[in-house]
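ok new one. same drill as before - C-alpha cells go in, u give me an amino acid for every spot. 186 of them this time. try not to just spam alanines like last time pls lmao
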C-alpha cells in the first residue's frame, strides 16, 4: 500500500479525473441579454445574424469574419470564424455553427468555439421570436457562455462582459434596422 505522501505526489502529476473536468466547466461565465426591436420581422433579423461573413462590416473590433463551410441542404454556415483585435490582442476564433429556423415563429443561431487559444469555453446562442406582447416587433435573446484559460482573465471578465454584450447587441440592432430601411436583409 502506498504512503499518503506518495499517493499525493502521484495524484498531483496525473490527469484529473473526468468529474474534476466537468466541475471546472460549471464555473463558466453566463450572460443573457434580451432586446425588443420594433417593426422588424424575425426572418430579417435571422438573416443578418446568420451572415457571419459580414460581421467585419459592423461589429467593433471584428477585423475579419468568414464562413469556412456551408450546409449542402440549406446553404447556411456550419463552420465560421472571427478575427478580433483590440490594442495588442489579435485572435482568431473558429466556431461550429448551427442555424435553425424550425418554424416561422422561432429562429436560432448557435456558435460553439472549436479554437481554444484564450478560451476554454466560448458559446453563443441567438434566439429571435415575434414579440409576445408588442405588435409588429421582435424579441432577440443573446446568451453568452465563456470561460478563459487564464484565471486572471476569468477574475476580471465580469467587469467588461455586459458592456461587450450590449455593444454587440447595439451593432446587430443597428444593422437589422439599416437592412429594413434599405428593404433587404443582405
Amino acid at each position: 500500500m502506498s504512503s499518503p505522501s506518495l499517493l499525493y505526489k502521484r495524484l498531483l502529476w496525473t490527469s484529473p479525473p473526468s468529474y474534476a473536468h466537468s466541475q471546472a466547466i460549471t464555473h463558466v461565465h453566463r450572460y443573457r441579454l434580451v432586446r425588443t426591436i420594433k417593426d422588424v420581422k424575425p426572418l430579417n433579423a435571422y438573416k443578418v445574424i446568420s451572415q457571419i461573413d459580414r460581421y467585419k462590416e459592423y461589429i467593433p473590433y471584428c477585423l475579419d469574419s468568414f464562413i469556412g463551410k456551408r450546409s449542402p441542404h440549406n446553404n447556411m454556415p456550419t463552420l465560421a470564424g472571427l478575427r478580433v483585435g483590440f490594442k495588442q490582442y489579435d485572435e482568431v476564433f473558429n466556431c461550429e455553427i448551427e442555424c435553425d429556423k424550425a418554424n416561422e415563429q422561432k429562429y436560432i443561431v448557435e456558435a460553439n468555439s472549436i479554437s481554444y487559444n484564450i478560451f476554454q469555453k466560448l458559446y453563443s446562442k441567438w434566439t429571435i421570436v415575434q414579440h409576445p406582447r408588442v405588435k409588429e416587433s421582435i424579441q432577440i435573446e443573446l446568451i453568452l457562455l465563456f470561460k478563459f484559460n487564464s484565471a486572471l482573465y476569468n477574475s476580471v471578465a465580469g467587469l467588461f462582459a455586459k458592456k461587450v454584450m450590449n455593444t454587440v447587441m447595439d451593432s446587430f440592432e443597428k444593422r437589422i434596422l439599416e437592412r429594413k430601411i434599405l428593404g433587404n436583409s443582405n
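The chain has four helices and seven strands. and btw Residues 1-25 have pLDDT under 50 and may be disordered.
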